[in-house]
Amino acid sequence: MANRAIIFHGTGGSPDNVWYPWLDRCLTERGWSVDRPSYPLLNEEPIDTFLPQVLESHRFDTDTVLVGHSGGAALILAVLEQLDVTVAQAVLVAGYSTPPNDQAEPVLQAQYDWKQIRSAATEFVFVNSVDDPYGCDAAQGRAMFDRLGGTLVIRDDGHSGDWDQPFPTFPLLEQLI
Questions:
Q1: Which of 3, 125, 163, 176 lies 20 to 30 Å (CA to CA) from residue 89?
Q2: Crossing angle for the helix pair 71-82 and 47-57, to the nearest 10 degrees
């Protein structure tokens, strides 16, 4: 099993929001190395110029687990499309691959090479909610699951954490990793 995780925060977030510090502690207690980078321009800067910075800032290998929330989950799709190595697991929480609402989504690509993305992770886990207020909902999770396979978990957890939705722990996520 993998022993290194990178946790990508969501749009407008930070590595100290919601369940990210808690998950970091849980994995660190298991002996993992955990990185929680800060990307304040996530989903503000176009993915074409933002993605190279992300790829240069991290090491990706067969022992890597990628965890992303919201815009961070969308970022993982773009990352995986560029990798020439297969990571252990990609966990996308409140993820999406098409515009979830009428807001600009610079983190999204116009199209994806789903076959390449599928080959870049041994396992995929999607956790979405039926009542996500931003449209990062069960339909978005199902669309990615249909293209990539893996495990799809549908919850009733809103956005799984946000500025107005305290979500300090996420025990299910610890179990899925």
A1: 163
A2: 70
CA dihedral 144→14→27→75, nearest 10 degrees, is 30
pLDDT digits (tens, 9 = 90+) for 145-168: 999 999 999 999 999 999 899 999
Name the residue with tokens 């409140």: 94
Q: Buried (b) or exposed (e) across 120-129, using 16+ Cβ within 10 A?
A: bbebbbbbbb
- Stretch 56-75: mean pLDDT, rounded? 98
Alpha carbon distance 158, 116 (integer Å): 30
Query: What pTM did the predictor assign?
Result: 0.97
Helix (H, G, I), strand (E, B) or coil at 125: strand
- C-alpha 117: how far from chain center: 13
User: From CA 143, how far away is CA 162, in angstroms rounded?
Assistant: 23
Cα–Cα distance measured from residue 176 to residue 129, given in angstroms and rounded to the nearest whole number? 16
54 φ, ψ (degrees, to nearest 5): -65, -45
**pLDDT tier at 2, thresholds 50, 70, 90:** low
Half-sphere exposure (CA, 13 Å, Cβ side) for 112?
Answer: 26
